[in-house]
Amino acid sequence: MKPGDNPNWFAHSPLTRVNSEKDRSAFIETRLKDPNSILVPLWRGDPLVAGGKAAFLSAAALPECPKDAPVVLLGLKEGRAYFGVDLSSAAKDRAQAPFAEMGEYLPIRAAAGVVGRDDLAIIGHGRWLFEWRRKHLHCPICGARTELKNGGAKSACPACESEHFPRCDPVAIVLPVHEDHCLLARGPHFPPGFLSALAGYVEPAETPEEAARREIFEEAGVVLSSIRYQFSQPWPFPTSLMMGFIADAEARTLDLDTDELEEARWISRQDIDALRAGEARDGIFLPPPFTIARQLIERWAGGA
Ligand SMILES: [Zn+2]
Fold first, then answer.
1. Domain residue spans in the chain?
2. Considering only the top CATH level, what class is 169-301?
3. How far is the CA of 45 from the centre of ligand 1 (A)?
4. Cα distances (angstroms) measured from residue 63 to each of 30, 32, 35, 85
5. Per-residue model confidence as pLDDT tens digits over 55-103
6. What are the phi and psi torsion angles at 6 (to 5°)?
7. How far is the CA of 156 from the centre of ligand 1 (A)?
8. How much distance in Å is there from the Cα of 77 to the middle of ligand 1?
């Protein structure tokens, strides 16, 4: 698959990862002192936005951050190192967080429609690492507090010397199709009409295709035949790798698991086209373009 074949937001970071640097700690120390290096400030995973774009700072601003603010190395672009800095502990309110006077810490879903896609991919990478760190502060073996190492590439336990690496949780997300209809659904935590593709975590000892088949049967009672992988999306909510499928359903009958789904509907291609054109249809709202669910719908509507 060529990079251009993957339309997903949060993918294709313009940064080159710094994995081959022999002495990563020395590299990080030098680059953090270099004012040409870039800081990506995040507050609870939300980016600083100013003037309709992401506000990235010079590393010269680092002394204005709390000393204990976690810093992660995200990569290199045009010779500059990019670092994420987590300012969550500096303020309980986003308006009081460091650098907030420059703009606004915008909730990331809102920021997704504002900042450029390259910047969003960089922001998503930082958010991912900080979310992982926030939920894995302690060693899963002995319970001691771990330390972030190598610019966030891993954490290490000073007590038992074990090492731990950022999580990546695979999820299968599926657009079932039958003749000229596709199946969209919503869980009870979404408002009426806000429909999306069905998704579920890949379980231990399961392939993504098996997870796709199982989830759709468990939640909607729909049997899938051909399951076709389309593309993937790094999804920093908090640490998921979404793997997208379009799959043929054997029939359009539904048998909903009402604990999981409040509503599921087969939507015609004609209605999908109208919704994509911004027309109203039965109070349905398609998922926003930054979601892989929407990109699966777009691909199917485009003839896949
Ligand atoms: Zn330990």
1. 3-135, 169-301
2. alpha beta
3. 27
4. 15, 11, 12, 12
5. 999 999 999 999 999 999 999 999 999 999 999 999 999 999 999 999 9
6. -105, 105
7. 8
8. 35
